[in-house]
Amino acid sequence: MTPDVVRFRQADLLAGLYRRFGPVVRVGPYTYLLGPEANRFVFAHAELFEVERAFQSLVPVDGPTSLIVSDGEDHQRRRRLVQPALAHRQIAGYVPVMRANAEAAVEAWRPGAVVDVYQEFRRAIRRSTIHALFGEELARDSDFFGAHLQVLINLIDRNPAVVTWLRRTKAPAWRNAMRARRAVDARVYRAIEEARQGAMASGVLTSLVQSDGLSDLEVRDQVVTLIAAGYETTSGAMAWAIFNLLRHNGVWERAQEDDDYLANVVNETLRLYPPAVVSARVAAQPFEFAGKKIKQGTFLLYSLYVTHRLAEVWPDPLRFDPGRWERKPAPHEFLPFGGGPHRCIGAGLATTELTVMLRVLLQGPRPELLPQRVTPAGLAAMRPRHGLRIRVAG
Ligand code: HEM
């Protein structure tokens, strides 16, 4: 039987620990900073934390100079260069590309067919993100990127200790991943070369190569980061939104007619199913929080999922209720995109993409959500583990 609300056992355990022990909980090598006050603290005291060591596990995909693993001045400089392409005004210009990609996916479905909407929209979102940010030429290779990046994503999805062991022993999984990375890199470096020669008219790549002082490696890392971070998380959110639209009575019909309601469905989806279940930091210096001393170098995790399902912040938290968005939550209560100086740079793009693509889906007749086990997977980009199967209206 398809559940009403999907629970992530691992993250629910954390909520139990928060209730028992308060906001600072040590589990093995990790220290969790849990609850709204911990979020507020992390966002307000960026100087106490670093992300470079916290997100080392992403380096095989995103590269050593990626925005995601950058601190201090390097972070500011790289973020400043990427930001303009993700500004509000630019995003509005990407809408036709988003819509066209969603339409191409939906129009290919035969009436009565069973489709996995997670995979279908994942593909559409990847193509649309690459097209919007880097142009049509690179978007033609979207499936190529998808195939190779998947090998790398599968690698970093594993326990970091296992990844280290695979690297040291040069195990087949590591060698495959490095082969995939070389293929991705060759394509991206070719695009960088073309952009340097002025062959590309616009896009983030042009502004990155035109900016002073960014090496080819830095440009490569930002490009791959934006592609990978852009579709991994958003496609998980898309699947959860479709699950909510189809699982709860009347939600699909109301969302068809009311844009504000659809926006609330998206928010309520990001509350119950924040793709980043946790985010990480490393203590850059010793500090104290909630009466507990944290040593320099401690690996810290703060949890979006736990906060989003706390009854003291969200009454009746497991109820899917788009109506609750009459109240605007504080940034430490609703944080699907994190917060502080490392807050997701693609938040606006992701929200627009979700809304535009859902609107395309909602224009057609209501599909049927097939009975299925829906279990979550992935702490960095939570998705339905086995996808999400629907039957297209006949
Ligand atoms: C629903 C979709 C998305 C979710 C839930 C999401 C979530 C997040 C979270 C939680 C962080 C870490 C914030 C922190 O720890 O403080 C983050 C960072 C980041 N995200 Fe997203 N993201 C999404 C879509 C995107 C998109 C579409 C892009 C780009 C096209 C993107 C690019 C990035 C980058 C580059 C960072 C690092 C920012 C920095 O350190 O300055 N994300 N995202």
Automatic annotation (TrEMBL):
Heme binds at C344. Pfam families: p450. GO terms for molecular function: heme binding; iron ion binding; monooxygenase activity; oxidoreductase activity, acting on paired donors, with incorporation or reduction of molecular oxygen. SUPFAM superfamilies: Cytochrome P450 (SSF48264). Its cofactor is heme. Keywords: Heme, Iron, Metal-binding, Monooxygenase, Oxidoreductase. PANTHER family: CYTOCHROME P450, CYTOCHROME P450 12A4, MITOCHONDRIAL-RELATED. Belongs to the cytochrome P450 family. This is Cytochrome P450. It comes from Lentzea xinjiangensis.
